[in-house]
Design a protein that fits this description.
single chain, alpha/beta, Rossmann fold, OB fold (Dihydrolipoamide Acetyltransferase, E2P), five-stranded parallel beta sheet, 18 strands
Length: 456
């Protein structure tokens, strides 16, 4: 049977889609690149914030309208896990609903549809297979077959779920409590990716600093990084995303700084800086302690890039509290920062709080914070002109319109250690360079987010 997977949401969903692709191919199904060519269309949905949820719903409706006779549409992922009843009731275009463990349940569900062997069955024999999410994924059952990779970097999910009860977040509702993927499985996955030419691993989870705590032994994020460096040295960059400030410690920073393949980049989502807002968010971390840890990270790894994420417009956020956040951002001078407006999520304490901030105010505050960060980013980027950076090449493009291509040549597109894929900037390198190669580049120009240079 031919299947098509459409992925919405964050990198963790990307990893889930790759696992689903593995599982379906292992069951004898064939992937296709176009929804129109598929017997089964699968949308791996996102249920995190309103914009992402609406995007998933819109895509389901779009594919539902295009669906031909006998073709099946399946809703999978976070939105399905959280709103299975609503999808079944309000989206008749959807034939089947599965949850965040689609990679584990869907191959068997398709096989149950008919007595005909899966490899030979026709999509029209599936009928309407409406199933609802009943369980959360067990990471020691994660598929072990080789993943298909299309770039020199690849994500690895190291855990699932979250034990924090942030008042704005619905992740524990959808994903359950924190569960670490066994270290040995992560190493096996990394070896497979290294064999396929991957040069950068990006470790993702809801809380990477909590890795291994549920194992109740010496398993930890530093041990994971040390093991990957020892067992898979062919991968020069291991980038860690989603470090919760509460679990970050000086000892952890000191160990991580000694790992030769650790990419000197820390993603530490703060959400806010004012103590009262953090208390309402139930974030718990102390700003003074966090400042000290970030300073230690910068001291132990000179030149390291620090990224964060902020949320504006949380219920009760006053003008004074926002101004405090703005001043703190300017003080800390983060290399990268993302800013989101608060989105009330069903079932979370924040949605029921008093003093909800008007949407217009949320957007205005986001704009002010982003403008301040862009000024900082432009200054930090300009300071890199004249330096030399290692750049991982990801592709190439024509440097000029067709009639001037011969004179202008080509530029290669890559990223330095300072740039995580999809959320940060890029480095444009003059000339054509092999995808997957690591090139030393002298920086000659800068913009707010991107750099331009030439190979040394």
């Amino acid at each position: 049977m031919r299947f098509y997977i459409d992925t919405r949401g964050c990198p963790k969903n990307t990893v889930d889609s790759e696992a689903l692709d593995q599982a379906l191919r292992g069951a004898g199904h064939v992937p296709v690149d176009r929804a129109s060519a598929a017997d089964v269309m699968i949308v791996n949905t996102c249920g995190f914030i309103d914009v992402a949820k609406q995007e998933s719903i819109d895509r389901l409706l779009e594919l539902g309208q295009q669906k031909r006779q006998g073709q099946q549409l399946i809703a999978a992922g976070c939105l399905s896990q959280r709103y299975s009843d609503e999808i079944a009731r309000d989206l008749p275009e959807v034939d089947t609903v599965v949850g965040v463990d689609a990679w584990r349940t869907l191959p068997g569900l398709l096989a149950e549809a008919t007595d005909t062997p899966v490899r030979q069955q026709d999509a029209s024999e599936l009928g309407s297979l409406l199933r609802f999410p009943a369980s959360l994924p067990v990471l020691n059952q994660w598929p072990t077959t080789a993943r298909r990779v299309h770039a020199p970097s690849a994500y690895i999910k190291i855990s699932e779920g979250c034990n924090y009860g942030c008042t704005f977040c619905a992740i524990p509702i959808m994903k359950g409590l924190y569960r670490s993927k066994p270290l040995a499985r992560i190493v096996d996955e990394a070896r497979q990716l290294a064999a396929s030419g991957v040069k950068e691993l990006i470790l993702v989870s809801q809380d990477s600093t909590a890795y291994g705590l549920d194992q109740r032994d010496d398993t930890s994020l530093p041990l994971l990084l040390e093991t990957l460096a020892a067992e898979v040295p062919a991968i020069p960059w291991v980038r860690v995303m989603y470090i919760h400030p509460d679990r970050l410690t000086a000892r952890m920073i000191d160990r991580i700084a000694q790992v030769p393949t650790f990419c000197p980049y820390i993603d530490i989502p703060m959400q806010h800086a004012h103590p009262d807002v953090l208390k309402r968010m139930r974030r718990g971390h102390l700003i003074g302690r966090t400042e000290e840890l970030i300073a230690r990270f910068r001291e132990r790894i000179p030149g390291a890039a620090v990224r964060t994420t902020f949320m504006v417009g949380f219920p009760g956020e006053s003008s004074a509290e926002f101004d405090f956040l703005l001043a703190w951002l300017q003080k800390m001078r983060f290399d990268r920062a993302g800013v989101f407006t608060y989105s009330p999520e069903d079932g979370t304490p924040g949605a029921g709080m008093e003093r909800q901030v008007a949407e217009r105010t949320r957007q205005r505050r986001r704009q002010r914070l982003m403008e301040a960060q862009e000024e900082i980013s432009a200054q930090l980027q300009a300071a890199l002109v004249g330096t030399t950076l290692d750049v991982l090449i990801e592709g190439a493009q024509d440097a000029a319109p067709a009639k001037r291509r011969r004179a202008a040549g080509m530029v290669s597109i890559g990223r330095s250690y300072r740039d995580a894929p999809e959320v940060d900037g890029t480095v444009l390198v003059r000339g054509r360079h092999r995808v997957g190669s690591m090139v030393k580049v002298r920086i000659t120009e800068s913009t707010t987010h991107d750099l331009v240079g030439e190979a040394v």
